[in-house]
Amino acid sequence: MKKLILSTAALALTAGVAMADTVRMGTEGAYAPWNFINDAGEVDGFERELGDELCKRAELTCEWVTNEWDSIIPNLVSGNYDTIIAGMSITDERDEVIDFTQPYTPPDPSAYAAMSMDVNVEGAVIAAQTSTIQAAFVAEMGATLVEFATPEETVAAVRSGEADAVLADKSFLDTVVGTDGLVMLERMEQIGGGVGMGVRESDGDLKATFDAAIQSMKDDGSLNELITKWEVASTF
């Protein structure tokens, strides 16, 4: 059965017209455990392992490129790389500019971290990374939003007192709470529509290729194993 699944996927993976053998995978490299730069200076994390496996199944060579978050979509559109694989939630607004594969994780809960459990987020100053679903959520809820270019800066703002709390993916905040007095608040937000790979709207063959590879990992259970290993979200 497993061979049948993978054989069917392989047919879909090779159905594209004249795609390049090397695919440039764009990521941020600053959002552990999703993606980060390890001690050897290489891209690491859940999405590095996932991307390498997807390319293997598609018989493609991955070439990893890092890019700052706030320009990651424009630089995909302009051709600096071929995909975005960077913990990017699928939203209608983003989908107007680029295409997404099917999600490779369900939505990750968004959580608040602060220096005290007594923070009332409704009237607080909340830090969030620029151009994220969390920043949009804070703006809509009516709290005071302060935006920063990197996730590290959002956490630093809370530690310095510039913000009362930070709103981010719980899986990211799990890597920083417990240090320097930072605590996780009980309140969670369920926002976003799952995380997928971004591709240019003109790259329908590439989208189909990665859709088939993601589906093959869902079918054989290896995607859930990877999600569990890196603790990035709930499983499918």
Please give the radius of gyration in angstroms: 18 Å
Overall tally of structural domains: 2
Ends distance: 20 Å
The largest sheet is:
5 strands, mixed
User: pLDDT under 50 segments (min length 5)?
Assistant: 1-18
Number of DSSP-assigned strands: 13
**How are the strands of the biggest sheet laid out side by side?**
5-1-6-13-7
User: What would the principal axes of the Cα set say about the shape?
Assistant: globular
CATH topology of the largest domain: D-Maltodextrin-Binding Protein, domain 2
Number of helices: 9
Description:
The chain has two domains: 2-106 and 193-230, Periplasmic binding protein-like II (D-Maltodextrin-Binding Protein, domain 2); 110-189, D-Maltodextrin-Binding Protein, domain 2. The protein is 35% helix and 22% strand. It has helices at residues 2-13, 46-57, 72-77, 92-95, 133-141, 151-160, 170-173, 204-219, 222-230; strands at residues 22-27, 30-31, 35-37, 43-44, 61-66, 83-84, 99-100, 110-114, 125-129, 144-148, 165-169, 183-189, 198-199. A hairpin with a 5-residue loop joins strand 3 and strand 4. It starts with a helix and ends in a 6-residue tail after the last helix. Residues 1-18 have low confidence and may be disordered.
Short structural summary:
The chain is of the alpha/beta class and 236 residues long. The protein has helices at 2-13, 46-57, 72-77, 92-95, 133-141, 151-160, 170-173, 204-219, 222-230, and strands spanning 22-27, 30-31, 35-37, 43-44, 61-66, 83-84, 99-100, 110-114, 125-129, 144-148, 165-169, 183-189, 198-199. A hairpin with a 3-residue loop joins strand 2 (30-31) and strand 3 (35-37).
